[in-house]
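**User:** My hope is that you can spare some time for a protein that puzzles me. I have put the entry right below:
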Amino acid sequence: MIGATALQAGPVRSIRLVLPAQPNPVIERIAAVFTRQVAERCEAKVTISGDSPARVELVIQPGIGTEGFRIVDGTDGAIRIVGNDELGLLYGLGKLLHTSRVDQGGWTPGAWRGTSVPVCPIRGMYFATHFNNFYEVASIEEVERYVEDLGLWGLNSVVLGFPHWQFQGFDDPQAQRSIRRLKSIMRAAKRLGIRVGLGEAVNDGFKSTPQELLRTPVPDPWGRHGNFGVNLCPSNLKAHDVLLRDWGQLLDEFADVGLDFVEYWPYDEGGCGCKQCWPWGARGYPKLCREMSVVARTKAPKIQIILSTWTFDSPPAGEWEGLAKCLAQKEGWVDYILADAHEDFPRYPLEKGVPGKLPLLNFPEISMWGQNPWGGYGANPLAARLQRLWNQTEKKLAGGFPYSEGIYEDLNKVICGQFYWNPDQPAVETIKDYIAFEYSPDMVGDVAAAIKIFEQNHLRDHINPSADKAYELIQAVEKRLSPKARRAWRWRILALRALIDHELLKHQGRLEGEILKGAFDELTAIYHAENAHSMPIRPPQIRIPDTKRAK
């Protein structure tokens, strides 16, 4: 989707956006997102009527390729974005926006022209909504805007999870609040034509679950399967009935949104190790998922089923082989297999084939790897790691759903999204385009160099003197940025990462001093993490002694 950035003559302070005749609500929303993006970044105004030195026309013309677009110059001087469909218009506007200069001088339209069609049909994101993280506690307007921002980079699917284990039951006021919030996020996506789904740890229960319904713990010597203590055993007839009843009620809660996917999860949270269910991925799990799919398709016949194999055979237990045998016997109830792990991509589906001969999706861990607390030190760019893992999949994927705990991995999301759009797009090139748009085309080299150093210093016990070089680069760039870019949260999480690493190096890793305290406090405010779980989400807290009181 992204190519080299080149700019036309400019800038201009007024843009006329010409919509198709009788635009529908989706197209009107796409236009509103473009208008907001321009207003947030420069002084240019977007209008839909009147004269303007720049004119952008939106046209729908099927035949380009599903969700694809074409950008051409019209004979009348207008920039014409031709979308195969409504999403094609969204991505075409995103392409034009991301290859333009948008700063205090105004809007200088990018010179990229051509046709672009996504390779992978599923370009998703999984938003975790728990632990009082950003998606759970930020204003709903912020989260909705964030979904729109990602849409401009090619996102076409969003999945969210309902964390049963946080609540007493559906009548718990906090559970109803969570459901309302998830639905609001889904509706924001739907307004742009983005598909939505619900992720479900299939035997997860509420905190009020009776002890006699709970599962037998799964063997977990590698510590990969997760356990919040309220998973049910589906081989227990009473627990089985509760699971299907609650699943049906949860689907009913989202019926007015119109779910496009359900995504089943075996572990973290999930699993049962009893004799009837184990090995879970080969026995209890697919059996329960098939029954849940009957419930789902009774309520929504066109809903698609994504079957996750997260941490299958960790350690080996015959789960991949067992699932393959199960799907060979009962084909037709699954649409996609999702596979990934904490480390390397699983070899089974690449070497022995995907169970059921189904399309394969990945689930990159862009949030949690290698730092604790996650995102507690600012931006966590992982370009080299994501490129290495992407290469392991050998271009056999139909897309994926990166796992997100917040906004600190914004760049990682864009990298993964561009892999899905164009599997040959290197992560380093995506970084350059991201920098040019989010910060400035003039700063690409210096910021890219700093980002590379950040990844080299990703592990908190391996910060080396290069952190000072990254800090110097970021400090120099900050002086040259426009005021709007300098204040934006995407710059702040990058600048704070440079500052934090610089200070940690100076203090030999010790969390101390007013400077680090101020940096962590600012990150906490950006993430809305004041009440977040201290282990995974909230940045470190530093308390400065009151020396006057001590005296």
Summary: DSSP finds 18 helices and 17 strands in the chain. The domain at 14-116 is CATH 3.30.379.10 (Chitobiase; domain 2).
